[in-house]
Structure formats: structure tokens, C-alpha cells
């Protein structure tokens, strides 16, 4: 009863704080912070722990705990995150005078400025970048020995789980080309092209969008991962809302949710091979178990393993760029936990990494102090991103980047801590698009200056 009471108090506190830092927790007006609350924390990280601490989970990962006290410790760590992450965000908002409700609502009402949309130079630059990204998608397909999607269509479903791991780990091409230009850049470019096609109604933008859209769908589903295509669809819904083309209603949310659920069930049948109706309805298996336990259970395993079976990493799982300065080999805690908990899956090639809430990797490196410091740091980063984008000009590039981070920050939150310290993909995207806009603006200003000089 005590744990249930704590859970409810923490939930209410978290709801109040997240509402203050996001401006709205309404599902009809989604934003970066509300997505973090509902997806990264409430569903993926907070519902499961109440069952775990009460011993009602019967989940295969939690059954690997060697020390039962980590059920309680893990529960309390998640409660800490639910309160202190939004509290940090709230303090930053107060320090910079950010009124989340007012600024977010104003942003939604603001018209989109089709910056450079009619400029030939911009379209040429953008089209060239789009061609590079589409070629990168083709390159990814060519350098993947066996494409899981193709094998599924051919009816070869026996080893799909192994093929999914091999598609990611045994890619024979350049990983940076795949990760940056194919996986990250193509969907983002498709969003920008979509906004321009809607706002300018030019045929050239519509053609470019269709090509990018097709490549984005392909790169999202080729390895049969279930989440990328869902997140890509969500990005489209968000961008439609933010540019004023779509307005969410309770009925639309219900229809979209029903379609997503149906698609998820179909993917479980054909990809996971789950056909038993009891597996769907049980909280420890199928889609329900995947939602409330799969993402958070590795956090409990991290707490159980590091400091007990394995020594703390002392920073060895931080970004390779930082670790390399000290001539130390980089390791990822999520991989070490997989090797400890499921050695057989690693041996037979079906085990990759056990990514989970950021506190797990922070703890694996620096113990409980790492959890506290990581929570403060990430809270500051997330709220700073939210404030900056709401205050930037609302043009197709910045709107699309805002949407990109509104989806990828929540995903990274339940993927680890290291990517928040230095993420080369995020860095390259920001530099690329900001540099592109600044260069074109400088060129236009320079042209205008010389024109005025000639006229005078």
C-alpha cells in the first residue's frame, strides 16, 4: 500500500510540473515535453515499476535480478526522475522568464514564414542534399547483406530476429553514411519538403517531397524495427499541426490510436510470431509487456549488475570522442548488461543491447551521483532546446528541426545518457541547416548591398 501511495503522489507532482514546463499536456496539442512525459516517462518508465516493486510483473528480464532489493531501489530511482527532471526544467524556465503556456500557444498560432522558398539557390542546394540522402538510402540497402523486410516479403520468417540484429551490427558499408545521411537526414528533409510543398504549392517541391517520403518509409522499415515507422508518422502529424494544416480532435486521436494499435498487432503476428490471444492480453507479454516493461526493466538490471557483479565504468561508456582523449576503450553499459543477463542470446546472434532510461547508463558509470547529475544536466538540455525553438523564427527548416528533436529527444531519453553529452548526428544536422540558412541569408544581403551601391 505504501508503494502505491508513493506512486500516486509522485505521479500527481510530475503532472503538475510537466504542465508548467510544457504549456500543455493535452494530447490534442502535443509538444516536446508532453511527449517526454507520456512516452518516455509515464508509459515506458513509470507504469511498469509499480508492478515490479509489488512483485506482480512476472517479466522475463526482471526474473534475472540476483538481488530482490533492487526492485525497491529501481522504483525509487524512477520516482526521483519523475519529480526532479521536470523540477530542473521548471527552475530553468523561471530563470530565463519562460512562460510555457503563453509562448507555446503563440507558437501554434504563428504563421509559417516560407523563408527562401521561392529562391532558386535554396531549392538547388536542398535538392542536392536530398539526392545525397536518397542515394544514401540506396547505399544502405546495397550494403546490407540480407534485408529483413525483403526476407519477410519472400516468406523467410524463421530467423527474422537474428536478421534484424545482423542488419544493424553487420552492416558492411560506412556507418556514418547510413546513420547520418540515410536514417537521420532523409526523414528530416522530407518534413521540410512537405512544409514547402504545402505553403508554396509549387510542383517542384511536391515531386521532391514524394521522393523523400518514399525513401523515408523504406529506411524506417527495412530492418523490421517497429518503432521508426511509428515515430516517422508521428513527426508528420506534428508538423501538420504546427503549420496549421491539421487540428487534432478526440475522434481523430481515437482513430489514429486504433489504427496504430491494429498495425502494432499485425507486426507482432508477422515479425514476432505471437499468435496466442493470451499473450496479447497479459501484462508481461506481447504489446502490453513491451510498452510498460521492456524499456524500463534494463534499468533495474543495470542497478543490480553494476557495483555488484561488475565494477562501475567510471566514464568508459561516454562518447568515443571524449573517452578517446584518455586512451580508454569505449564500452556501452547496455551491451554489458545484455552479455551478463542473456549470454545465450549474445552467443547465437539474437542479442544486441538493452537500452533503457538514461539513469541506467549514468549509474553504470558513476553510481547514484551519476543519476543525480545526469538528471540535472538532461533537464537543462531538454528545456533549453524547447525554449530556443519556440523563440526561433517559424520557418520550414526550424519547424522541421523542432519536430525532429521533439521525437528524438524523448527516444534518446530511454536510450542512454552518453548521446546527451555529444551526439554527432544532432551536431551535424544543426550545423548543416543553420549554416545553410546563414549562408543563403548572407548571400542575399550581399547581393542587395551591391544592388544598392550600383543604384546610388
Automatic annotation (TrEMBL):
Keywords: Membrane, Transmembrane, Transmembrane helix. The chain crosses the membrane at residues 6-28, 35-52, 72-92, 122-142, 176-196, 203-222, 228-244, 253-271, 366-390, 397-418, 424-444. It comes from the Bacteria. This is Oligosaccharide repeat unit polymerase. It comes from Litchfieldia luteola. The lineage of its organism: Bacteria, Bacillati, Bacillota, Bacilli, Bacillales.
Amino acid at each position: 500500500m505504501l508503494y502505491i501511495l508513493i506512486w500516486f503522489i509522485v505521479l500527481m507532482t510530475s503532472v503538475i510540473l510537466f504542465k508548467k514546463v510544457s504549456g500543455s499536456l493535452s494530447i490534442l496539442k502535443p509538444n516536446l515535453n508532453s511527449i517526454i512525459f507520456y512516452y518516455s516517462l509515464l508509459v515506458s518508465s513509470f507504469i511498469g515499476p509499480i508492478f515490479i516493486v509489488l512483485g506482480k510483473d512476472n517479466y522475463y528480464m526482471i526474473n534475472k535480478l540476483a538481488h530482490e532489493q533492487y526492485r525497491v531501489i529501481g522504483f525509487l530511482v524512477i520516482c526521483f526522475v519523475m519529480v526532479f527532471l521536470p523540477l530542473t526544467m521548471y527552475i530553468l524556465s523561471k530563470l530565463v522568464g519562460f512562460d510555457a503556456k503563453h509562448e507555446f500557444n503563440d507558437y501554434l498560432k504563428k504563421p509559417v514564414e516560407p523563408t527562401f522558398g521561392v529562391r532558386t539557390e535554396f531549392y538547388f542546394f536542398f535538392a542536392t542534399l536530398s539526392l545525397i540522402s536518397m542515394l544514401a538510402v540506396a547505399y544502405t540497402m546495397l550494403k546490407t547483406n540480407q534485408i529483413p523486410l525483403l526476407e519477410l516479403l519472400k516468406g523467410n520468417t524463421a530467423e527474422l530476429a537474428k536478421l534484424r540484429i545482423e542488419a544493424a551490427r553487420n552492416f558492411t558499408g560506412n556507418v556514418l553514411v547510413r546513420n547520418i545521411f540515410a536514417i537521420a537526414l532523409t526523414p528530416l528533409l522530407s518534413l521540410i519538403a512537405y512544409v514547402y510543398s504545402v505553403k508554396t504549392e509549387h510542383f517542384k517541391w511536391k515531386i521532391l517531397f514524394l521522393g523523400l517520403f518514399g525513401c523515408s518509409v523504406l529506411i524506417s522499415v527495412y530492418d523490421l524495427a517497429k518503432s521508426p515507422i511509428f515515430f516517422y508518422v508521428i513527426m508528420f502529424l506534428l508538423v501538420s499541426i504546427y503549420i496549421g494544416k491539421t487540428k487534432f480532435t478526440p475522434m481523430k486521436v481515437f482513430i489514429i490510436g486504433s489504427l496504430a494499435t491494429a498495425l502494432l498487432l499485425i507486426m507482432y503476428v508477422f515479425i514476432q510470431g505471437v499468435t496466442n490471444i493470451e499473450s496479447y492480453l497479459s501484462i508481461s507479454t506481447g504489446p502490453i509487456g513491451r510498452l510498460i516493461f521492456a524499456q524500463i526493466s534494463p534499468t533495474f538490471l543495470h542497478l543490480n549488475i553494476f557495483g555488484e557483479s561488475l565494477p562501475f565504468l567510471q566514464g568508459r561508456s561516454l562518447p568515443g570522442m571524449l573517452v578517446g582523449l584518455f586512451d580508454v576503450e569505449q564500452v556501452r553499459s547496455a551491451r554489458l548488461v545484455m552479455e551478463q543477463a542473456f549470454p545465450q542470446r549474445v552467443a547465437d546472434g539474437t542479442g544486441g543491447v538493452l537500452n533503457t532510461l538514461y539513469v541506467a547508463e549514468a549509474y553504470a558509470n558513476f553510481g547514484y551521483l551519476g543519476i543525480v547529475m545526469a538528471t540535472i544536466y538532461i533537464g537543462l538540455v531538454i528545456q533549453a532546446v524547447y525554449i530556443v525553438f519556440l523563440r526561433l523564427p517559424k520557418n520550414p527548416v526550424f519547424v522541421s528541426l523542432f519536430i525532429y528533436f521533439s521525437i528524438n529527444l524523448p527516444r534518446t531519453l530511454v536510450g542512454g545518457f552518453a548521446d546527451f553529452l555529444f551526439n554527432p548526428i544532432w551536431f551535424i544536422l544543426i550545423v548543416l541547416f543553420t549554416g545553410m540558412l546563414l549562408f543563403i541569408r548572407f548571400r542575399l544581403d550581399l547581393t542587395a548591398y551591391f544592388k544598392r551601391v550600383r543604384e546610388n
